[in-house]
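Deliverable D2.4 — example input (structure tokens):
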């Protein structure tokens, strides 16, 4: 609010530099001296004409020490990144023809230098006036050290959350792999052995009433074995470990079309999908989650999954002809399926884009390991 009021008062602040009436000079001087933001005025040679107490406090010096000093002493030229037209580094350019008061470039980042040599981040705004061929600049600066620190802390927390998410995904996949192996190797073998024993028992010509019970037991064991295989496959498809990503996706396509009346087109080359376990697992889960969403929500008749190498990237597209995803659902916090896909893609340093015009389309680009 203070900054906005100061910017509105820039015409009067300029009159303070070359006052026409002593009353206006006093009022402008009072505004600039009492302002909470640091205000510096310079001439076209980048010499400081005036600085308020807030500016002196910001740079760890005095108003008297700042007046008459070069601006480079407090905002070094090689540390400036402000806009070319209104940059402090261009203050000496008198070729500009802007003659209106209050012309402003807002919120540019620069680096300040305290009197003790300590650099610190600043955000600045500039207003310029040319009168009688002479340029005068009024600079409003704000110390954004705390903001930068908070931003860095947020970025660090965000990075740690990403790493935690990737680690949890990895741990989850390892647990799935372990449980699937235990189910298949231990419990699966036990059920297979039990059925074999039951078959041998049936060959001893038991009594009719016993034969009926044995046949029922055999049917239950067959059902249990089928359920066990399905559960183990959902936890960790054996095709992913035995044949790689391409064969796992082919198996996924067969299972999907067997359960849903949706045409599934898989466009991929086996040679292009020879990837390590992390990539193969992540891509498989992304496609699997996409198919789950399509079956539940899309009301689609067909889906096409394409995977191709493009230079050092793997391009993945998943397109259905359903009703399309609502824009509000793309970033909804409760859309855990989409959130999980994003986390897997980001965990591999890739990009993902989801659109819902004419069906739903998911485009993913993953950098391939060298």
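Example output (designed residues):
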């Amino acid at each position: 609010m203070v900054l906005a009021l100061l910017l509105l008062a820039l015409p009067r602040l300029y009159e303070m530099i070359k006052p026409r009436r002593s009353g206006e000079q006093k009022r402008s001087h009072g505004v600039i001296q009492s302002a909470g933001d640091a205000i510096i005025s310079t001439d076209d040679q980048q010499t400081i004409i005036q600085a308020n107490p807030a500016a002196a406090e910001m740079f760890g010096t005095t108003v008297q020490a700042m007046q008459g000093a070069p601006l480079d002493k407090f905002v070094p030229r090689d540390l400036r990144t402000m806009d070319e037209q209104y940059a402090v580094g261009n203050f000496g350019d008198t070729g500009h023809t802007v003659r209106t008061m209050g012309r402003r470039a807002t919120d540019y980042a620069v680096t300040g230098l305290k009197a003790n040599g300590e650099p610190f981040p600043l955000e600045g705004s500039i207003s310029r006036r040319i009168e009688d061929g002479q340029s005068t600049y009024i600079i409003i600066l704000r110390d954004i050290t705390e903001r930068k620190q908070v931003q860095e802390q947020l970025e660090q927390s965000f990075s740690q959350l990403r790493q935690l998410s990737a680690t949890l995904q990895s741990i989850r996949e390892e647990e799935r792999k372990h449980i699937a192996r235990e189910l298949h190797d231990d419990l699966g073998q036990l059920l297979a052995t039990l059925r074999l024993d039951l078959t041998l028992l049936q060959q001893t010509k038991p009594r009719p009433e016993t034969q009926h019970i044995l046949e029922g037991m055999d049917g239950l064991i067959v059902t249990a074995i089928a359920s066990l295989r399905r559960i183990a496959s959902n936890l960790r498809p054996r095709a992913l470990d035995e044949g790689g990503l391409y064969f796992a996706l082919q198996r996924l396509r067969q299972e999907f079309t067997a359960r849903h009346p949706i045409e599934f087109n898989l466009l991929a080359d086996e040679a292009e999908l020879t990837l390590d376990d992390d990539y193969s697992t992540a891509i498989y889960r992304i496609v699997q989650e996409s198919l789950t969403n399509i079956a539940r929500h899309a009301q689609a008749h067909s889906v096409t999954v394409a995977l191709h190498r493009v230079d050092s990237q793997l391009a993945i597209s998943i397109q259905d002809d359903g009703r399309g995803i609502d824009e509000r659902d793309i970033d909804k916090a409760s859309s855990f399926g989409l959130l999980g896909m994003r986390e897997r893609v980001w965990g591999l340093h890739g990009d993902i884009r989801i659109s819902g015009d004419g069906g739903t389309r998911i485009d993913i680009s993953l950098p391939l390991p060298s």
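The longest strand covers residues 119-131.
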